[in-house]
Amino acid sequence: MAAFSLETRPGNGRTHVVISGLVDEQVDLTPIIGLDGTVELNLKGIRRLNSAGVRVWVDALRTLSKRARVEVIEASPAVVDQLNMISGFLGGGTLRSFYGPMICERCDKESNHLFDAGEVRDLDRLPPVTCATCSQPLELDDDEDRYIHFLREPTRVG
Ligand SMILES: [Zn+2]
After folding, report:
1. Where are the beta strands (DSSP E) in the chain?
2. Which domains does the chain have, with CATH numbers?
3. 138 CA distance to ligand 1 centroid (A)?
4. Per-residue model confidence as pLDDT tens digits over 33-73
5. Residue pair 92/156 in contact by the 8 Å Cβ criterion
6. Comparing C-alpha atoms, which of 1, 16, 76 is closest to residue 43?
7. How far does residue 56's CA lie from ligand 1's centre (Å)?
8. Cβ-Cβ contacts under 8 Å for 48 (sequence gap 6 or more)
9. How far is the CA of 134 from the centre of ligand 1 (A)?
10. pLDDT, tens only, 66-82
């Protein structure tokens, strides 16, 4: 299990934040709470959150999104699971994109594919994705209705 890490990189009126690893009760999210302007959170590397970590996370996101415009990109499957369980997981943040765990039955290969949240919401399903190796359609390695349930909920998507 990769350790927790948080890196912030200020840009042009926009702070890029990359958060990775395990989110538990010991994580320190104070470096992001004081940010303002537009804050882009890349959550590609979050592998797991435990229930105490979720509480720390939700408090931090709620506080952060009071003063900053929060955009979440590349939400990992672990983050999508939380989005499906907890309304308000992103505070007032907006989800831009997320990963789906895909499987090619012909190649017996698993890969994560990045989906545009607005596109999936508009289609009300995942757009077709083909295998880079054999060009066959990939299947989501999960129940699709369960996996994209959060897009039909009040979580802001755009
Ligand atoms: Zn294939």
Report:
1. 5-10, 14-23, 37-49, 68-73, 94-95, 97-104, 109-116, 139-140, 156-157
2. 5-99+144-157 (3.30.750.24)
3. 7
4. 989 999 999 999 999 999 999 999 999 999 999 999 999 99
5. yes
6. 76
7. 40
8. 1, 22, 23, 78
9. 4
10. 999 999 999 999 999 99
